[in-house]
């Protein structure tokens, strides 16, 4: 079990300028926790994809960043929440090449590959929450008991 | 809440002409609207000046997500329709690693490790790709 060391920040996602804030915030938070350059780049890229989904498909929302600590390992969890139309078919939305907009269809499936943990909840008509977690330098850790 | 910040103004990326090549240097964190504006500016400038090459230096770019990747691919595609070749130069290693993992390998893009190598590529008379000429005898 890992403990949440506290919600670091909650950022609104309402415009493409907010996407810039999200990227800058995630980069700074990841650098502070000791993420290497490649890990930082992956996490910021994933955050950018997910924040854009929140903006474009969810009609705007927010990102909550939480610092996690688990047996000495440091992690960063990002939760993207919108109250948009939701995703009717998650399997389809998560498959490579599927796009409902004008992207390359790599947003959701690509972001999933860039992080260690990926979790999505969506209720049609109610909105979508995507949570991703990255750990610094991926120390071996026991699988969590269900 | 974000209204409390002084919002950054979307920038305008300058397009420089160096002989037969348009040179664009991307720096830092680009707004989506800035990238889209650049895409339009480049198409208009190629058409107006008749240059044969576009060199985009992304060595100062910290992340390329699928949006910026798509813009770069579309710039190359539209330049080709306007009889110009595009080279994207100076991609950071961490960006290349991330793009490959993201599944965005951008097969239509010609790349170079530095602006110098990119200029050299564009100054060559022959296309960067081996022309499909008459069949050559194998040695």
From TrEMBL, chain A:
Q: What is this protein called?
A: Anti-sigma regulatory factor
Any idea where the Histidine kinase/HSP90-like ATPase domain is? 38-138
Organism listed in the record: Streptomyces swartbergensis
Q: What is the lineage of its organism?
A: Bacteria, Bacillati, Actinomycetota, Actinomycetes, Kitasatosporales
CDD domains named among the record's database cross-references: HATPase_RsbT-like (cd16934)
SMART domains, from UniProt?
HATPase_c
Automatic annotation (TrEMBL), chain B:
Checking Gene3D superfamilies in the record gives: STAS domain
> One short Pfam family name for this protein?
STAS
Q: Which residues form the STAS domain?
A: 11-122
Instruction: Extract the PANTHER family matched here.
Output: RSBT ANTAGONIST PROTEIN RSBS, RSBT ANTAGONIST PROTEIN RSBS-RELATED
Query: What is the protein name stated in its UniProt record?
Result: Anti-anti-sigma factor
């Amino acid at each position: 079990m890992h403990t949440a060391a506290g919600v670091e920040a909650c950022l609104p996602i309402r415009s493409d300028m907010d996407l810039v804030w999200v990227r800058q915030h995630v980069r700074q938070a990841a650098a502070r926790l000791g993420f290497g350059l490649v890990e930082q780049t992956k996490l910021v890229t994933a955050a950018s994809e997910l924040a854009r989904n929140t903006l474009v498909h969810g009609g705007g929302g927010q990102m909550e960043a939480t610092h996690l600590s688990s047996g000495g390992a440091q992690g960063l969890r990002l939760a993207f929440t919108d109250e948009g139309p939701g995703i009717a078919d998650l399997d389809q939305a998560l498959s490579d090449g599927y796009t409902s907009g004008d992207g390359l269809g790599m947003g959701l499936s690509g972001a999933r590959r860039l992080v260690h943990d990926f979790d999505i909840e969506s209720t049609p008509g109610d909105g979508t929450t995507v949570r991703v977690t990255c750990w610094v330098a991926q120390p071996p850790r026991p699988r969590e008991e269900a | 809440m974000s209204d409390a910040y002084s919002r950054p103004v979307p920038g305008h990326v300058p397009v420089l002409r160096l002989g037969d090549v348009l040179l664009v240097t991307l720096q830092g964190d680009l707004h989506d609207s800035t990238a889209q504006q650049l895409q339009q500016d480049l198409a208009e400038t190629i058409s107006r000046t008749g240059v044969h090459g576009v060199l985009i230096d992304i060595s100062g770019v910290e992340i390329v997500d699928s949006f910026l990747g798509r813009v770069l691919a579309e710039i190359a595609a539209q330049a080709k329709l306007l009889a110009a070749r595009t080279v994207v130069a100076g991609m950071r290693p961490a960006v290349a690693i991330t793009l490959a993992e993201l599944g965005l390998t951008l097969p239509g893009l010609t790349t170079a490790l530095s602006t110098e190598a990119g200029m050299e590529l564009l100054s060559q008379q022959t296309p960067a790709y081996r022309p499909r000429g008459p069949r050559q005898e194998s040695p």
